[in-house]
Amino acid sequence: MHRHSIIATIALAAALVLPYGAQAQQKNEMTEAAGKYNQTLFYIDRLYLEDVDFGKLVEKAIVATVGELDPHSSYISAEDVRAMNEPLQGEFEGIGIEFAIIRDTLTVQATVAGGPSESVGLLAGDKIVRVDTSDIAGIGLSNEDVYGYLRGKKGTKVELAVLRKGVDGPLDFTVVRDKIPINSLDAAYRVNGDVLYLKLSRFAAKSRDEIADAIRSFDGVTGGVILDLRGNSGGYLPTAIDIANEFLEAGDLIVYTEGRKIPRMQESARGNGLYRKGPLVVMIDENSASASEIVAGAVQDQDRGIIVGRRSFGKGLVQQALPLEDGSELRLTIARYHTPSGRVIQSHYEAGHADRYYRDFYERYLRGESFSRDSIQFPDSLKFRTLRLGRTVYGGGGIMPDVFVPQDTASYTPYYAALLRQGLVIEYMNGLCDRNRSAWTSKYRTFEKFDRGFEVTDDMVEGLVALATERGIGLKEEELERSKEDLCLYMKALAASSIVSRECFYRVMNSRSPEFQAALEALREASLSL
To answer: What confidence tens digit (pLDDT) does each residue in 445-469 have?
Structure first.
């Protein structure tokens, strides 16, 4: 079948069903209901006591209507459409910085390589105190405020006043906004010299290119590839197909879809992927969904690799983005995904009861699904066979991994949870790195030097505890002691991200991750069997 025929046919079908006004003479249930609603609006317009905002009235009606459908159909207002699409389209227009708000001041954490801020000389640690004529320090700045100040159309200029350590008075910069790439591949690095680790945060328009570039740049990957999709809630269907194609042989079925108005269509690998042979592990967890499940399901059903982690979310419904005339969108479910063996990825739901659907997801934890594979029971009707080796796999919601790794919550105490929920660990480490940036960036020029030399000291932990106490979170010494090892690891990972690179956050966290260690062991066993 022609490349991306699923997407092309879905779009065509959507286009065909959109102009229902052309069928207005057909006396059917839909046109009767639409006529009744239009008549109601007409009476309100002509007779109601007060003026009415018909835009708000209709929006509420649309939201209520869509709420009676499946849990993933949705209405998105015009102002939210661009914000939601931006991370998937892979770029925005702005000045090109990573930032943090430290002590109510906008602080540059890093500049995007090749971006407009780097080109004019902005540096990590710089504090932006004025944008054009607006003083922005000490005004209760939010992330949304920062986007409003710094993002804008390509080619427009913004004047910045910057405070820099060791320099008297503010420095003035003129930055010309440009297109800034948003990377979806958060990390790509070698493990033990011969394993390539890839951390994909979402399936964006350019994700396949990012993965392909990483594979090409790491020639000689003999120990295998780990594709980490933990926490990846999905994205573009074409990207999922393209990424699966990188690992499968020509003709291998990747996914097929079916719907009430959408006939069965399927996508298969084209045989031009860069890593079609060699050990492969895909890591998933309970927050891996949609496109992540398509890739994991294809790899599992084709016996191409090993799935490691915990049962995925179970989102297997196809949404089509249908534009409305005011710029808003209706994202309407039109079909179901099926894995190559025929499994339905979607978890059970009742139309109009999204609250029950999401509550059931959270109750998985209470039923013990995160801690024991035996707590997850599948009826015989949901058992399927993989296509090459005939292994048993399961349908009925999500992808069940081949290697189950229980969640370790022994050190996740209420005190540690409170620090995380209020963002205090990130806030404290941002400030600490900001104060020590010059010394630490000079001392730790590579991750290897950082990993060997950087230590989270008792003084650092005490500083965090003091900040928490100041914010109303009283110290619980026993809980702190239980959480201390994990807390210090997280603090070190945040420092690595700020001082060396974002990728290094995962290098630190993976060093003591049970899921990551299980993935390495699965690769070793796969290598021995080849």
So the answer is: 999 999 999 999 999 999 999 999 9
Inter-residue contact 252 to 309 (CB < 8 Å): no
**How many other CB atoms are there within 10 angstroms of residue 280's CB atom?**
21
Let me know: does 268 contact 5? Beta carbons within 8 Å. no
The confidence score (pLDDT) of residue 409 equals 85
Residue 407 tokens, joined: 């969640």
Closest CA to 241 of 279, 286, 290, 198: 290
Question: Amino acid letter at 22?
Answer: A
SS3 assignment, position 40: helix
- Reading the block at residue 160, the tokens are 């910045």
Query: If you write DSSP's letter for every residue of 418-459 in order, what string do you get?
Result: HHHHTTHHHHHHHHHHHHHHHHHHHH--SHHHHHHH----HH
- Kindly report, residue by residue over 138-168, the tens digit of the pLDDT: 999 888 899 899 999 999 999 999 998 878 8
pLDDT < 70 stretches in the chain: 1-27, 82-90, 374-375, 529-530
- Quick one: DSSP state of residue 121? T
Q: In the prediction, which pLDDT does 273 show?
A: 96
Catalytic residue set = 290, 301, 315
Residues 6 or more apart from 498 whose CB is under 8 A from it?
109, 429, 430, 433, 437
175 DSSP β-pair partners:
158
Which value, to the nearest 10 degrees, does the dihedral of the CA atoms of residues 285, 290, 292, 296 take?
90
Q: How many residues does the chain have?
A: 530
